[in-house]
Amino acid sequence: MNFVSRKRVIFEILPSHPTRRPRLIFSPFHVPSSQVQRRTMSNSIDQKLAELQKYSACDVSDALLKLQKLPAGTAARAGHLADFTPFSPSIGRNATQPKIIAPASTFKFIPKDDRIPPSAEPVDSHGFPAGTHWVDFAKPGTIAVLEQPANQHCAVLGGIMAVRMKVLGVRGVLVNGRVRDLEEINECKLPVWAKGTSTVGSGAEAKPGARDVPVDVGGVTVSPGDIIFCDPLEGVVAIPQELLDQVLELMPRLVAMDDKVKVAVSQGMSVFDAFKQFRAKV
């Protein structure tokens, strides 16, 4: 038998049938098409996230302000997730830390005495089966977005949870609520943004209710797969996943127009005239 290798797949050619088409034999090196597709999709999103690194959170919001269609009378939020403070790897806004940009995975906490919400069904994909801990469902390569009930004083993220997420490969955590154990969180170098801090553990008031469901972050809905853009200087923006390509297409045009405006203003032109000349409608 004569074996010919073609793109990591082995073909068998029978000498007694020279015109017969090669019969496909899967070798141990064969890569199923589903894996190739997932790898291609992964490469594609990685390229888009790398492109986003060139811009600021303000640039992203400028694009979303143009792109998002809102009901009449609704205030435009342009993806801005307000009033978050970085607590790790350093505390406070600064320009020395890198941007953290990744798809969202989500956890919804509820008051500890509430029933588990319907959104936690089916339990194997949105809930927490018996004998498991919520943090063990954290997804590598994502920014975990935690929604905590309003007006609670406990923390829903502490040092042990942060270490576990770091080990699992989580890129960062955005807590719409409180965190604690700042020394431990800083030691593990997991990027963490939150609304505030506490000394009290989550068991005092909260419990995990659901995962991989849309969550409310200060009036902005964040769904699993949306892109979370944590800018250490400017703040945090959520990009709806269905608008990512449009944001990437529009931002360079908006930035280029503003660059021309800044040059003109620095050379003495009035802002009104610079806007009129260089800010075209898009």
UniProtKB/TrEMBL annotation:
It comes from the Eukaryota. Substrate binds at G158, G159, I160, M161, R180. The keyword Protease does not apply. Keywords: Magnesium, Metal-binding. The keyword Methyltransferase does not apply. Mg(2+) binds at D181. InterPro entries: RraA/RraA-like (IPR005493), RraA/RraA-like_sf (IPR036704). Its cofactor is Mg(2+). GO terms for molecular function: 4-hydroxy-4-methyl-2-oxoglutarate aldolase activity; metal ion binding; oxaloacetate decarboxylase activity. This is DlpA domain-containing protein. It comes from Aspergillus fumigatus. The lineage of its organism: Eukaryota, Fungi, Dikarya, Ascomycota, Pezizomycotina.
